[in-house]
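hiii, so i know i said id send this last week but things got crazy w the move. better late than never?? heres the sequnce for the chain we talked about at the cafe, plus the structure i predicted for it. fair warning i was half asleep when i ran it
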Amino acid sequence: MISCQNLTLSFGEKRVLDSFSLELPGRGVTALRGPSGCGKTTLLRVLAGLEIPQGGSLSGLAPGQTAILFQEDRLLPWRTVERHLTDVLPRERRGEAGSLLELVELSGEEKSYPAALSGGMGRRLALARTLALDARLYLLDEPFAGVDPARALRILERLKALPAPVLLVSHEPALLARADQVVELDGPPLLFLERKSNQKEL
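okay and structure toks below
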């Protein structure tokens, strides 16, 4: 289990995290929902090691064990779709590029360049590149922006089957309803309100 306890982080006079705590399961998709600007992206950046909190602790996660999808796609216009994946896949896993493109429904676009992709296709490529990284936790900031709802739901089901947990930010009710659990937030500073499980009792 991955746990953050009493995280505190301020930017100047603005307190974004104030003794914030959260535990994440070892698998499945956890969705964060809260108003814009409440601190969700900052939390992802702290978990990714891109922001260092002034207080609190993280356990169950070592530096370099996360992969983060930013709100911007950050694609390289001179690299093909396939090369975006093989550039980050370890040599012994480069043969997995095709299955990653299948996961995000981009099969057949291997030789295309970002300029030839729609906004939703570019978003899906950025997602596939993130998933190509070996990680113990995937952090996805609005991963389905510009992706049509039916396709987003299909991809979400595949994310739930990954061997590592996924923490994503979304405002889409249909996606939130299909996540394994939803964490309701408010802020700033970021405030834990409620955790809802969508998993059916056996």
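btw The chain has a mean pLDDT of 95. thought thatd interest u
miss u guys!!
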